[in-house]
Fold this sequence. Notes:
Blueprint: E1 2-5, H1 9-20, E2 25-29, H2 34-41, E3 49-51, H3 53-58, E4 68-70, E5 92-98, E6 106-111, H4 112-126, E7 133-136, H5 143-155, E8 158-161, H6 167-176, E9 181-184, H7 186-198, E10 208-211, H8 218-228, E11 231-236, E12 245-246, H9 254-257, E13 262-263, E14 268-271, E15 277-281, E16 288-289, H10 292-296, E17 305-314, E18 317-323, E19 327-330, E20 333-336, H11 337-344, E21 350-360, E22 364-373, H12 381-390, E23 401-405, E24 428-431
Parallel strand pairs: 1-2, 1-3, 2-5, 3-4, 7-8, 7-9, 9-10, 10-11, 22-23
Antiparallel strand pairs: 5-6, 6-16, 11-12, 12-13, 14-15, 15-17, 17-18, 19-20, 21-22, 23-24
Amino acid sequence: MLLVAPVAAPAVAAYLATVRSGAAVVMLDRRCGTADVEHATGPLDVDLVVSTSEHADRLDLHGLGVPVLDLDHLGDGHQPDRAWAEPDPAAPAAVFFTSGTTSRPKAVVHSLDTLRSGARHMAHGLGLGPDDAAFLSSPVASITGVMQVHLTLDRGAALVLEDRFSAASSLRRLVEHGATTLGGAPVIAEELFAEARRQDLAALPLRSISLGGAMIPRDLLELATGRWGIVPTRVYGSSEAPLSTYTMPDDTGERRLADDGAVAPGAEVATDPATGEVLLRGPHLFLGYLHDEDNRAAFTDDGWFRTGDLGRLDGDRLTVTGRLKEVVVRKGLKISLPEVDAVARTLPGVVEAVGYAVPDPATGERLALALHGADLDGLAFESVVDHLLAAGLAKWKLPEEVVVWDAPLPRTTSGKVQRRRLDGGGVRRLLAPRLRS
């Protein structure tokens, strides 16, 4: 089954009904593009699609030639069936898509066993119980979203779902529902806390925040602790290996702020002595990628998963220092640069098209796109965006800065474009509306 999921209760119910009945679900976020749907369904025999009518029309999901169920009316007129047999928890249950160093998202296959293992790690780090309520604004179709679904279900806690994040309205909803924990990208917490400070709120219902997915600002952690008494928990995880390390419940003071936590029970973490790349093994590790070619370079001969991240170990504690993978992390979501490069090279007149990361105070990083070619003098930002959307690129993967070069892009002696030398170059910058003021 293909599930195009908003952050809403019907999507959570559809996900749980599928995996608990023994079927496998392919997960896409509601913000996906037509190219994402084509990539997700191409190698698979999808026999059912569940989506809202809005996204079914936008993505032409009826064109797949299989039944499409309307997510908004999925439960109308039906009584829940509680008599099914529990599925094999080690069997493939869910497929997620993540961006890496290739030109297309990788299909990550998990079982209920691997997902529940990651959820247990998170529950231990947060000390979550039935009196808690988790606030979720990350996509249900992401590993962060699914972890919190399993986390709250397994612990009997509540889950507050926020499909369209806005600092003021989302903070109001968080307070109204008494959310006690918050997980996801650091930028979400930053915006909520900035709004709470603007409103001069003396107290928040949150007792804990669990943050990962990007480098975490030190002042964010200190603000949470000092102003509202919120206990920060740092985590290190990915779509392939949710929560490999996390802050331990008995960590205090500087130990809670200084690194990415201790190795989770049952997990194994190492670093490649030659490159410093973080390597992982354990029961939380995914079953593998759907495409065999992705698996060949992803594992060492003795079964360690190559994360593409750089880090160092001090005893059983990990500090992530950077990444090898070519991605931009915007609001905690990873955008594959090679994927954007490939689509941007179809722009008329473009000879070279290379994306790169630019630091951004609002989003952590933003995607910039360097273009070199013929007859680009009249190029407008809107025409670039329109072309990329028409080519199937998801809206959340669009660049917010386009830089036109009048000379070839800088390359290494082996011919590879040096992304790190692109920022600050070019002769003309075209900006998204939010950057123009």
